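[job 4471] stage=fold_predict status=RUNNING
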Amino acid sequence: MSVYTTVSRASLAQWLQRYALGELLELQGIAAGITNTNYFVTTTHGRYVLTLFETLQLEELPYYLTLMSHLARHGVACPAPVADHTDGFASLLAGKPACLVSCLRGGDVAAPNAAQCRAVGEMLAQMHLAGATFPLKMKNPRGPRWWSRTAQALYPQLDAAVAASLRAEVQFQDSHRFDHLPSGVIHADLFRDNVLMDGDAIAGFIDFYYACNDVLLYDVAIAVNDWARGETGEIDPQLARAFLAGYQAARKLSEEEIAAWPVMLRAAALRFWTSRLHDLYQPMDGELTYTKDPRVFQKLLEAHRQRQDFWL
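[job 4471] inference complete, writing structure tokens
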């Protein structure tokens, strides 16, 4: 959620004529996140989030926007896309596909407590259950093939020890497959900054633009790797157990999923270690962009390799 594409007030005011949202009052760039351009947009009818998609094409957006609408209708806390006068959710603005979604209350939390972790785990399970009736399909664009290809391009730019550790994990993950595990719609990026909290209650999951169809346990691992990570970078067992208890209160993990859990935690860490290395060494041009430290996930992955307690 950075600003790569600049939108003028005049062009936005003209674009907003597609909607029944009143007159434009305020436009404010959001300098957070990595992939897309985001603004807060305030009109005489309310406040919304405007997203311009820097990599996704207009024809790819129905999966994500229809999914958000589907989940919101099924009681999952998430923004609802706003339809324009043609009943469409997206159109071109400043040469990029763009959409508006409802702006939720609450804010992200830097240091979640156990109650918040449990609430996120439970809502993630509810999202997985609601996704079972969503008819559209999307392959994971950042799955094993992506991280293997991306890592291969990064090795020459990395310190020898870092490259060796990355190569070893890619090879390890290549020897494991999880096609037998339950799959469906996953968020695929449910970090703390993609959940709005209202105290200990969830105001909404946001930023669904990595959502896809993949193994449900992988989604749980991605979330635990961030939500249960303490100030030192290590997993806090209390937070991890709270998250997993919340998840299993709504959707019980199978024996096969529990057996795969240690390897899946490593896979989730590898995905974000690779993507952060990619963002660091091959950054996009942007007006308010920033990159996140890839060493966080290198350290976490290497800790998972030595871990004995997996909180289940």
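[job 4471] summary: The radius of gyration is 20 Å.
[job 4471] exit 0
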